[in-house]
């Protein structure tokens, strides 16, 4: 009898120790990294899960900012869409915005650098217009501060649309349907200001907020795979990508030189500041799977190549950003980062072509 009791005690002690060891090892896991997938309920306290933690690092894409001077209306959007597709906007009537910002390439052109009227070659890669409405500064060098200001840029640019603005207004005034549409949208005449405002209003409707990543942010833990989540951890952690690709639109609207040196001085042309040499605005990162090639000069063909560039973090001159450094990521981590970038792309956007009057 005595012996049986002591055996029971002995068993109880061992079981107690085992439980302690399991608990301590569980806790030490939580201490060692915030990302450890441990059971998130210990006793009565609920600890945040890995997913809850990761979500705190991002912001959901909110409503599009709209300037008070140019409130959006359906009439403006319908008109802006026609203008976006209308080749009359170019000097030789052969190039429209859609020529370079093609719908099936998520509003880019698939080229390293853009080609405008008469095959004239530009120096920069065509960025997407999707979610451009969220930027505080437009163009790779940030030289425009609103979509209204931006819109006339390509029209008058000699290597893009090479159009005289007075000539354009005259051409549009010759079309009765345009006269009617402008009168409806602006209670006024056709002017370059109204052309810009209509184009900007249309662009404010070109929004992507429906990617696996966005679903994850909204609370669907299964929207991302384990690999994509590992990539996300690197994006906010070791990779420090979020330093510059910050905020809901993945851009801090700031300028950095990433050691892509091809003679284009980027932001320097706008500010005349030494430190801005070769610096470009951090681009947004949604729909990337459709917008290759990448970077301001289109020099990188794949996302793998982009991630490799970051992993190497080579400084080419004294202007290279101090936030751009070698990352020492393993092949597995680089692949995960690519997978995460891909999860920022949703289904292809489909748009019905407007009838040009
Ligand atoms: C010949 C090709 C071409 C045409 C035509 C063209 N674009 Fe672009 N677009 C570009 C390129 C290249 C850039 C980047 C230029 C730069 O950063 O210096 C750009 C930049 C932009 C941006 C800024 C995006 C960002 O990330 O900051 C917007 C918005 C835009 N274009 C809208 C338009 C509109 C509206 C039209 C028609 C009126 C148009 N584009 C016509 C090639 C083109
Ligand atoms: C120091 C700021 C900074 C950091 C850190 C940073 N980026 Fe960037 N990113 C930029 C800038 C600026 C560009 C455009 C550079 C250029 O064209 O010269 C860019 C371009 C890109 C592009 C190309 C997008 C396109 O449309 O062409 C991708 C993809 C990208 N970054 C992903 C990442 C990832 C992944 C990380 C983390 C490993 C990262 N970035 C870290 C600033 C940064």
TrEMBL record:
Name of protein: Methylamine utilization protein MauG
Transmembrane portions of the chain: 12-31
Post-translational modifications reported in the UniProt record: Binds 2 heme groups per subunit.
UniProt pathway annotation: One-carbon metabolism; methylamine degradation
Listed InterPro entries: Cyt_c-like_dom (IPR009056), Cyt_c-like_dom_sf (IPR036909), Cytochrome_c_Peroxidase/MauG (IPR051395), Di-haem_cyt_c_peroxidsae (IPR004852), MauG/Cytc_peroxidase (IPR026259)
UniProt subcellular location: Periplasm
Binding site for heme c 2: 241, 244-245
Gene Ontology terms for molecular function: cytochrome-c peroxidase activity; electron transfer activity; heme binding; metal ion binding
Residues the entry annotates as binding heme c 1: 97, 100-101
Keyword annotations: Electron transport, Heme, Iron, Membrane, Metal-binding, Oxidoreductase, Periplasm, Peroxidase, Signal, Transmembrane, Transmembrane helix, Transport
Details of cofactor binding: Binds 2 heme groups.
Annotated Gene Ontology cellular component terms: periplasmic space
A Pfam family this chain is assigned to: Cytochrom_C
Organism: Neobacillus novalis
Domain of life of the source: Bacteria
The protein's role, per its UniProt record: Involved in methylamine metabolism. Essential for the maturation of the beta subunit of MADH, presumably via a step in the biosynthesis of tryptophan tryptophylquinone (TTQ), the cofactor of MADH.
Essential cofactor(s): heme
Cross-referenced PROSITE patterns: CYTC
Residue ranges constituting the Cytochrome c domain according to the UniProt record: 75-176, 226-345
């Amino acid at each position: 009898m005595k012996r049986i009791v002591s055996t029971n005690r002995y068993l109880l002690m061992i079981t107690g120790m085992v439980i302690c060891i399991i608990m301590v090892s569980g806790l030490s896991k939580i201490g060692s990294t915030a990302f450890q997938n441990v059971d998130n309920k210990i006793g009565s306290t609920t600890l945040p899960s890995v997913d809850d933690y990761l979500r705190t690092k991002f912001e959901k894409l909110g409503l599009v900012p709209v300037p008070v001077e140019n409130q959006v209306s359906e009439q403006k959007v319908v008109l802006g869409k026609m203008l976006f597709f209308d080749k009359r906007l170019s000097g030789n009537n052969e190039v429209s915005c859609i020529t370079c910002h093609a719908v099936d390439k998520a509003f880019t052109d698939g080229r390293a650098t853009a080609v405008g009227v008469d095959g004239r070659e530009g120096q920069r890669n065509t960025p997407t217009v999707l979610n451009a409405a969220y930027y505080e500064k437009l163009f790779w060098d940030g030289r425009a501060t609103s979509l209204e200001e931006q819109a006339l840029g390509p029209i008058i640019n000699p290597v893009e649309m090479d159009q005289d603005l007075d000539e354009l207004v005259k051409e549009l005034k010759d079309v009765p349907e345009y006269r009617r549409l402008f009168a409806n949208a602006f209670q006024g005449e056709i002017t370059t200001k109204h052309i810009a405002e209509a184009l900007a209003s249309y662009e404010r409707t070109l929004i992507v907020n429906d990617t696996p990543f966005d679903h994850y942010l909204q609370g669907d833990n299964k929207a991302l795979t384990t690999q994509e989540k590992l990539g996300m951890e690197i994006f906010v952690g070791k990779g420090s990508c979020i330093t510059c690709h910050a905020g809901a639109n993945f851009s801090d609207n700031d300028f950095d030189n990433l050691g892509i040196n091809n003679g284009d001085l980027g932001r320097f042309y706008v500010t005349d500041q030494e430190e801005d040499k070769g610096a470009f605005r951090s681009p947004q990162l949604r729909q990337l799977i459709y917008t290759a090639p990448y970077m301001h000069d289109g020099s990188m063909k794949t996302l793998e190549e982009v991630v490799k560039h970051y992993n190497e973090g080579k400084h080419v001159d004294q202007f290279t950003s101090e936030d751009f450094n070698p990352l020492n990521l393993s092949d597995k981590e680089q692949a995960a980062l690519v997978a995460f970038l891909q999860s920022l792309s949703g289904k292809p956007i489909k748009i019905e072509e407007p009838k040009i009057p």
